Amino acid sequence: MQHAAWVIAPLILIAVVGLSASTKVGKGDTLRSVIANLHLPAWVLPPWLARSIPGIEIALVVGLLSPWSPLFKVAATAALLLMLAYWALIARGLTITPRPSCGCFGEIDQPISRRTLMRNTLLVAAAGAGVALAGSGRTVWSVVSGAGTADWLWLGLTQVACAVTALVLGAKVEVASPLVWLEPSADVAADPAVHAQHVHASEVEEGDDYVRTPTPELLLHDPESGPVTLPELSAKQAQLLIFVNCYCASTTEVVALIDGWQEQLTHVDLRLVFSVPIAGRFVGNVPPGTLVDHAAVAWRRLGLEDSPSALLLGADGYLAGGPVHGIDEVREFVEDVRDALTEAVACMDGVGQE
Fold first, then answer.
1. Are 187 and 133 within one domain?
2. Could you give the CA distance from residue 129 to residue 117 in angstroms, rounded to a whole number?
3. Which of 29, 143, 297, 328 has the greatest number of CB atoms lying within 10 Å of its CB?
4. Range of the domain at 133
């Protein structure tokens, strides 16, 4: 049983690297965006290497499962070097404000945190255990093939425990987020976008009243006209701002969707806000009206947590909804605002006919 215990760490590493490889196939641009997010030069990860990473990781999985000791030793050493490189990238991300998302698993974007670094530290330790196993002349295959019934039971229960832990700690709890109707002030009630002020009240306990707060005096930069505060931006028309702080897949998705969203929100200006300098493939391709949040000051002051994040500025000088975080919540938020506007316009038309 003591010998069988040696394979637990390599088996976990094999599972993680295998998952990583499967999510990175065909995602070379996403992987290169990680380098841009970390403010590293493009030569660190050239296009050919970015395209090759899924294949490299698959080769490592095959090597780690190989019964041939020399091949297992090479694969274990390479896996340790790769895990150290990933660890260094995560550590680099912790020094950047706002922290970018992690593209460790292809398009599964995750905000970089100390928890991410801890995860990668454990992966480095698992890779180290693989090198130690290889140094003893054994392989995962030789240990597993020589395991007895008790060893198999012990290994099986250990893997089940790992799977349950991953599911529990990785689960995202979905909380119902009702929209709360807000009465606009009389001087702006004629505007359908203001008449439709709703709030995404995900943080409000049932039965509590949502308290709207004044639009904060935060400064953004319009590349065409210069500095503009949030109250100035929303003085004439409600604004739905979508903030991004990385060059990852979710940003590419938002850029592709934003024109269609704007067509649906005829009474609201929808603007993309970069909390990082506009760079790379986005230069010249950003939607009209895109703004820049210099040094991510607004990102931090608004308490944004994930890229993309969105919030709605009312034309009456108050926040009207959000912030919401993550591509899925942003999609739902846009749909909620669209539905609220449609209902408000229909309501106002009915009142006008009376």
1. no
2. 18
3. 143
4. 2-170
